[in-house]
Amino acid sequence: QHSLFSVFSTFGPLYSVRAHRNAAVAGPGSYAIIKFYSAGDASRAQRACNGQRLFQKSPLKVCVCTKQKGFQQQVLALNSNKCQELANHYLGFNGWSSRIITLQNVSGFDGENEELEKTLQKRSVKYLCAVEVTLPNHGLRTRGVALGEADIENSEDPLELVTASRRAQKLATGKALSSAFQKIVTTHVSHCLFCLLVPENGKVAVEYNSTQEELTDSLTEEELKGLVEVNPVDIE
Fold this sequence. Notes:
This protein has two domains: 1-72 and 190-199, RRM (RNA recognition motif) domain (Alpha-Beta Plaits), CATH 3.30.70; 80-107 and 122-187, 2-Layer Sandwich (Enolase-like, domain 1). It is 32% helix and 25% strand. The protein has seven helices and seven strands. It has helices spanning 2-8, 39-49, 80-91, 114-120, 158-182, 215-218, 221-230, and strands at 14-21, 30-36, 97-105, 123-135, 140-152, 194-197, 205-208. Strands 3-4-5 form a three-stranded antiparallel beta sheet. A two-stranded antiparallel ribbon has the order 1-2. It has a two-stranded antiparallel ribbon with strand order 6-7. A hairpin with a 7-residue loop joins strand 6 (194-197) and strand 7 (205-208). It is flat. The two termini are 35 Å apart.
């Protein structure tokens, strides 16, 4: 898998690389399923690598898979690090920016669990974060809001409270950034607010889908902060 990743990642960011041994009835050998974020990158990799001896003695047969039925799986949200990697690759390091609009401690807002927490002698700290991602070259922006929570084993220890607070803040910020990016770096155009379009010529464009606009993207900063304060646990 490492050799496959090293070769094919030169054509563009990879979503996943999976190597498998052939079934017994198919004879000795192996096959791999390599998923790119961009269909254009996958096509270039196929044309360049098909029939070549990349890291083995025999020529490699590379095909573009067009049937997804046998490989369907649950689509999970990308973490913030992967989102930033894709944004840097397709938009450039100066092609986007992010900032935290608000990061609030919302611990204790769910008072209905207070007695249960006291009984279990275990508490948690919660932070709610709102992040804005801007694409200056395209004149667009998108927002994400998420909740981060970290357990406190010993509520009497001030150091543990500080450590848990930092974990919750980091988690909330990362999830909010990921939420904002999901509207941009997604392949499901009908379910996103923005979508990166990467044609064969490599010139990136951003498509806006107004029918999928969310409340958090249209509010002013003051309105967003107010919404976060009123509904801390309902927005993720």
